[in-house]
Amino acid sequence: MKGNILLGLAAATLLAAGAGCGKSDNTTLQARLEALERTVAAQEKQHEGMKKKLSAGTFEVVDLKGQARAALGMGEDGCPALTVFDQDRRPRLTLTVTPEGFARLRLAGTEDQAGLSLVVKPFGDAGMSFYDKDGKELISLGLGSEEPPHLHFLDAAAGRPRIKLAMSRDGMTGLTLHSKEGKMLSRFTAMADDSSGVWLMNSGEDLRAGLTSTPAKGGNLVTFDETGRLFWSTMSN
Hints:
The structure is a single chain. It contains 2 helices and 16 strands. By secondary structure, it is an alpha+beta fold. The protein has 3 domains: 2-51, no CATH class; 63-136, Arylsulfatase, C-terminal domain (2-Layer Sandwich), CATH 3.30.1120; 148-237, Alpha-Beta Complex (Outer Surface Protein A, domain 3), CATH 3.90.930. Helix 1 (2-17) packs antiparallel against helix 2. The longest helix is centred in the first third of the chain and has 29 residues, at 23-51. The chain starts with a helix and ends with a strand. The mean pLDDT is 82.
């Protein structure tokens, strides 16, 4: 609208200036009017593009009290983040892209850092983690393109998994128990061919005993010496 008004005023000015001129002058005047039309059209197009783009460092959504309830901007790590706050200005939901390129959704409780986190890596690996009020990870659920699905229960103090449950691509399911130092102490397995086993290790992860069951041979109890060599088996007695 504004461009049309300006174009009309400019055209009127050119026409007034060209009144009484000859044919050649009128031709020149017409060319100048056409050039002016193209200029105004280009400016209007640029103006429309600018109206569709709004730039700022941070956008905030405020409630009726003027208190920020949501914010969209760049974090201290230089990554974009969308944060939603509760009525006490505590961040309850955060959506961001980490410096490593991970898409992360964090849902927080009202007590400090308790909550859960959903992460998707660039190559499709996905994970879910649960945290206590101190922000320490307690449960981890993962699904990767290279590694099998797994569920870990962690020791918050040590930050290491104490229980691991996983299933391989060939159908084997395994449950392992670990010490505070992260050493595997026992393993329970179920194979795709319906065989199963229980394995016990010492603190150095040396295999010391096992109990297996297969559809063809039934059960078998085995023990191993300190070097890991077979010491005794029910099938050999």
